[in-house]
Amino acid sequence: MTKGEFILNLNILKEEALLKSKDIKDTKELVNTKLYFLGTSGKLTKILKEIKNLPPEARKNAGIKANEVKQAIEDLFKEKRLTNTDLEKEWLDTTSPGIPPKIGHLHIVTQAILEITRIFERIGFTRVRYPEVEWDWYSFGSLNFPPDHPARDDFETFFIDAPPDPHFGKMLLSPHTSSGQVREMQRVGKPPIRMINIAKCYRPNWDITHTPMFHQFEGLVIDRGINITHLKGTFDYFAREYFGKDRKIRLRPHHFQFTEPSFEVDITCGACNAKGCRLCKGGWLELCGSGMVHPNVLRAGKIDPKIYTGYAFGWGVERSFMMKQGIQIDDLRLLYSNDIRFLEQF
Asked: Which residues span the domain enclosing 59?
């Protein structure tokens, strides 16, 4: 091949690229056309391989001309992409993985916590959270528990091997969110108080309705003139919003150290539609303890029980989720099994 033939081939290739660029309509066609001319097996690459067959004195000028044509073709395709509105609508990220990774989602317990939070926020409750590693005084002493109460035994509560505090006593893993009641009174000072405290709790229990670590949401309302009708109205509202209009709740008289009078709250079982199953064993499932805040608890929080009254309740998040309409989970431990086949359903 002579120098003249080499230059002629370059000019012909440049004209061919100009003509083909006019017919490009989308990104795919643009990429294919560019590879046709400039790819490792493209037409320009084949021509450049002929430089070694030229006379030595012609190679320099031939190389300069080849680079000019190559740059001209590259600029042509670049300009085509910038000026073609159809191509601008498309976008290609060459760094993105070929197979898109699966996008996860929040754990079902987290989903339940967010839903519960929104329900109570609509009636004026403020979401708070207090320590999981707590003092005995906040968990028991300030809540009217006597020193010899069974709940303060090693078989009922996880105590931490640490020096006790002279005033607050032993350190422990919080057995209930009720430990946040007096903390909230101390934080707010003067009522009104309308708190929803959602956090992890720890107790050495393990069966179909208990796990050593679980979540509770604690409600606390303190103001002038608060009575049981306000407590019952709050439960009716939450049951309707969270469980559905067809579910029923009931209050049973009970005893708790930090409320007087006290009630346990039951709801009709959603796993068996109140017919009785291994989860509920009788059509009803206990959801929470509740009652009017004991005067001694108000005093521990520096609030005068002669002026203010209040109600409190503690519900299990996992147990509440299990009782949602249509869920039909009969073993609480399943929520923490990490079985991806189960978790993907939510």
From this structure: 3-89
Prediction pTM value: 0.66
- Peptide linkage before 261 cis (omega within 30 of 0): yes
Count: domains in the chain: 2
CB atoms within 10 A of CB 162: 10
Is the domain of 178 the same as that of 120?
yes
Task: Specify if 324 maps to a domain.
Answer: yes
Tell me the CB-side half-sphere exposure of residue 93, using CA atoms within 13 A: 6
pLDDT < 70 regions, the chain: 1, 79-92, 208-209, 270-271, 279, 325-328, 330
For residue 103, being part of any structural domain is answered with no
Residues 324 and 234 in one domain: yes
Contact of 294 with 144, CB cutoff 8 Å? yes
∠ CA 217-177-138 to the nearest 5 degrees? 160
Task: Give tens-digit pLDDT for 134-147.
Answer: 999 999 999 999 88
- The pLDDT value recorded for residue 84 is 54
- The per-type count for the chain, helices as H runs and strands as E runs, is 12, 9
Enter the tokens of residue 112. 């339940």
**Predicted confidence (pLDDT) per residue in 48-103, tens digit:** 787 777 777 777 887 788 888 888 888 777 766 655 555 455 566 777 777 777 77
**What is the model's pLDDT at position 123?**
93
- In DSSP notation, 137-171 reads HHHTGGGT--TT-GGGSTTTS-B-SSPPBTTTB-E
Q: Are residues 161 and 14 in the same domain?
A: no
Q: What does the alpha-carbon distance between residue 255 and residue 264 come to, in Å, rounded to a whole number?
A: 9
What DSSP assignment string belongs to 281-332?
SSSEEEEEEEEEEPHHHHHHTT--TTT-EEEEEEEEHHHHHHTSTTT----G
**What are 242's two structure tokens?**
């969270």
